[in-house]
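Justification of resources, computational component.

The compute hours requested in this renewal are based largely on the per-chain cost of generating structure records like the one below. Each record pairs the submitted sequence with a full structure-token output. That output is archived, and it is also reused by downstream analysis tasks.
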Amino acid sequence: MGEKAIRILLVEDEVDDARLMQLTLNEGARDQFDLTHVERLDAALKTLKEQAFDLVLLDLSLPDCCGLDTFFKLHNQTPSTPVVVLTGLDDEKTAIAAAKGGAQDYLVKGQFNRNLLARAIRYAIERKRAEVELANYAHQMRLRNELMQADLDLAREVQMALLPQQFPVFPHGVAPEDSALTFCGRYEPATWLGGDYYDVFALSDSAAGVLVCDVMGHGVRAGLLTAIIRALMEELTAPGGGADPGRLLTEINRGLSVISKQAGTALFVTASYLVADVARGQFRYAIAGHPNPLHVRRHLNTVERLGQDTEPGPALGVFGDAVFKTFEQPMAPSDLAILFTDGLFQAEGPDGGIYGANRLLEAAQKHLSLPANGLFDALLAEVRQYSHQRQLTNDVCLVGVEVARIG
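The structure output for this chain reads:
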């Protein structure tokens, strides 16, 4: 059985030109082309509504329409049908304009033979088929992107909901302005889903736990891992737990190592965990491959890095048997401990230089008299000014715990 004949609608008002087109198509093998002829555009539009054609051969100069309007009126009605424009020598520019507007090709009357005409018809059909397939693919990709964006929107909402919505007070039940500890947090993901996370929770009426962590990467994987860490924290800081930072990081590391082994994928999470204990008058902290927290000591007019003379433990999820140490630091009223992720000081300046941890320390020293909210605003403003960017290119997370009184 031979190939199905190509159905062609010829729109041509010159009878001689139409007859020549028919004769030219019939020069080859029989039944390759099935030609229907109309002389006016309105007849063509009516015929296209009633029948399906593989291609339209369209003269641009018709009794009821002329020039580019001829093509666009037909193309707008049946955009999926390929069109080859027929034109005279004096109207070739118009034909080129029609091709730019969506026509698959154009032929100058009297300057083509049967082979050229047949090739133009077949190529036009194939190009249009490719266009339609590409358009369908693009449409499917848009739908998938919309679904993916909806999923990302939901994931972002969940991730933001995992952050503290209200900070605890100490002791429980007092007014926020009477709390022995107050808190301040900032979270600015560089992408729709970030890999930074922080949490603040009450361990007792006199002690608060503060966690900041940084998951390697961005996107859904990082967001999912922060949710897993949140779940581990809830389990490990249940009544009676979480008071020993080193032990807590050790347990989180063990849990992440199990998940990594089961999932067959590497996990890499840096973290700082600090306990502010007003009953003992001390900060207790442990560090897992993370930047050292800052200790703002307003009564001494100094800012120092907590644990700057100690060696931090490895990142979480790397070594399943890692054991993390707990370190202690005395605290005084008006002290502020600041935990943060490295996105705060890894901002790149116009010359390619990095803002750096030392500049961050100097900026904190310069603004140490400010309350936590004002200090955080000043630090972020200086980092943005250095990078000349309103939106930083890495996730930024800060959380501070301010001591109102001890004992």
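The longest strand covers residues 207-215. The chain is about 35% helix and 25% strand.
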